[in-house]
Amino acid sequence: MTLKTGFICDESYFWHDTGNGALCLRPGGWVESDVHSENPATKRRVKNLLERSGFIKELKPIEPRTATREEIELNHVSSYIDKVKELSDTTGGDAGDIAIVGTGSYEIACLSAGGALTGVDAVMNGDVQNVYALTRPPGHHAEMEIGMGFCLFNNVAIAAKYARKKYGLKRIMIVDWDVHHGNGTENAFYDDPEVLFVSLHQEFNFPPDRGLTQHTGEGDGRGYNINIPLPAGTGNAGYLYAFEKIIEPIAEQFKPELVLVSAGQDPSPFDPLAQMMVTAEGFGKIAAIAKNIAERHCGGRLVVCHEGGYSSAYVPFCTLRVIESISGLKSKVEEDPYQMVIDGLPSDVLAKHQKEAIDQIAKHHSEFWGLMVK
């Protein structure tokens, strides 16, 4: 019997309260109150589309457990965890650089991290073929000692350290396609050769001065940190070229025992916090490559954790295509309803400057990984 794709979600994820805002700012001064970018609808509407289309019936629902304090401490210092809990238990506040804690957010953040851990257990125990975890709050910006960029606890970093501790894994690959650099995950493994971290992101976006090509790791971890900063305006063709020229050849050599993905659907053309052009179909294609890497090297063990994506209208369709790809099934949503809007965009065109940028990145990593560069 073919195993299903697991789907992890919990209503509590939508109750993490980021309050009012305008994009990523709190209202005040000249900033009029609006809906905060990281609001529940950006995730809830994913689940709504899965249910409305009936595709959720093709998935195996898995209830997330709450990560323990000890598990959160695999990646975060005790004083920072205490700070998040104190803010959560009182009036809320900021746990770092735009890392909003609402009342009750501590328990939800522990459940979000626990969703990633639940996903790891499900694939390692062979209960499902792979997992999509619709977790919230996101995690990839969260550093060991401070929150950042809407992230409180680093779900994927905790999951990687948990997988290594519980299952004795020696080669874990993390692919982060969120449009913003996964600084927290990078720092968690910067000197660690057992975790290969790959981040595709828009260059010069958030956080500033992070995710540069020359940031390749240090000590024993040198070479195992792969940053792919892409020019603004990069679409499907550029992302697929980066996977072909850099990510797949490196994965072929690294041979991961588990693949984790930080899936931010914010490189889309409709995202208010980015300037990229990956369409829903494009997300489906890059997810298929991630699945293929897992199938080639680790029996298909793949856990995809939701990160950013701030177009509440378009994120559901991008995420649906991701889940379709990793499940190998098609939903009733045959066409992208926004296709008529994006038809004029060069999403499937690899511009000369984009190709040159990716080739230069590949050349930078060729010394360590022996990539074929013309």
TrEMBL record:
Q: What is this protein's name?
A: Class II histone deacetylase
Q: Fetch the InterPro entries from UniProt.
A: HDACs (IPR000286), His_deacetylse_dom (IPR023801), His_deacetylse_dom_sf (IPR037138), Ureohydrolase_dom_sf (IPR023696)
What CDD domains does UniProt report for this protein, alphabetically? HDAC_classII_1 (cd09996)
- Pfam family example for this protein? Hist_deacetyl
What family is reported? Answer: Belongs to the histone deacetylase family.
- Which superkingdom heads the taxonomic lineage of this protein's source? Bacteria
| SUPFAM superfamilies for the chain | Arginase/deacetylase
Q: Boundaries of each Histone deacetylase domain copy?
A: 36-324
